[in-house]
Write a structure and sequence with these properties.
Length: about 190
């Protein structure tokens, strides 16, 4: 269940991107990214969470914002450069832990009641994404929140589209959609574990 090894989605590919440009997707300044973070926060801000897990946290811009709604945030990225940036960005937040790790080995053993899947799903084959999401959903407690948000554009480094990412997740029988948003650029779904 590890990340597929296609060059464009490999750890080496991502590490090279972060070494060339500290913020290669402009996560900290792009109007699209900032609106996406606002949508994510708006979708979860109706409550607080004991522990969140954010795989693929990149440089930690969203991670930093999640901390205000969670007693604890565990975040991972498999790029050493990205995870170091996220650690520095979140160093002032005692409730945030960022590690350099990959799925599935990097999943914390701690119970989490918020799973944030943001801009990560399309880097996996459909079969691998289905396995990863099933493992996540099967391991979280009843009432836990799963928040997925993905870009709807096309990129050569994506295996599947943002819509396919969400359709695979929504097909899990243990999830119920609570809230959905869609615009020309992004799809967001908030689901609850049954």
């Amino acid at each position: 269940m590890s990340v597929d090894t296609k060059f464009e989605s490999s750890p080496d590919f991502f590490e090279a991107k972060y070494r060339e440009n500290a913020d290669p997707w402009d996560f900290s300044r792009s109007a699209y990214e900032l609106r996406r973070y606002d949508s994510i926060i708006n979708a979860i801000s109706h409550r607080t969470y004991r522990r969140a897990f954010e795989p693929g946290c990149s440089i930690g811009v969203l991670t930093e914002r999640l901390a205000a709604y969670c007693d604890a945030v565990d975040a991972i990225d498999f790029s050493p450069s990205a995870s170091m940036q996220a650690q520095r960005r979140c160093a002032h937040l005692p409730n945030v832990e960022v590690r350099c790790a990959a799925l599935p080995d990097g999943v914390p053993v701690k119970d989490f009641d918020l799973l944030v899947l943001s801009e990560i799903g399309y880097y996996f084959s459909p079969q691998t994404w289905q396995q990863i999401t099933s493992t996540f959903v099967d391991s979280i407690p009843q009432g836990a929140t799963v928040l997925a948000a993905h870009w709807l554009g096309h990129s050569q480094d994506h295996y599947i589209s943002g819509d396919e990412v969400h359709e695979i997740l929504l097909a899990h029988p243990g999830l119920l959609v609570e809230h959905s948003e869609r615009n020309q650029n992004m799809r967001l779904d908030r689901l609850v574990r049954l």
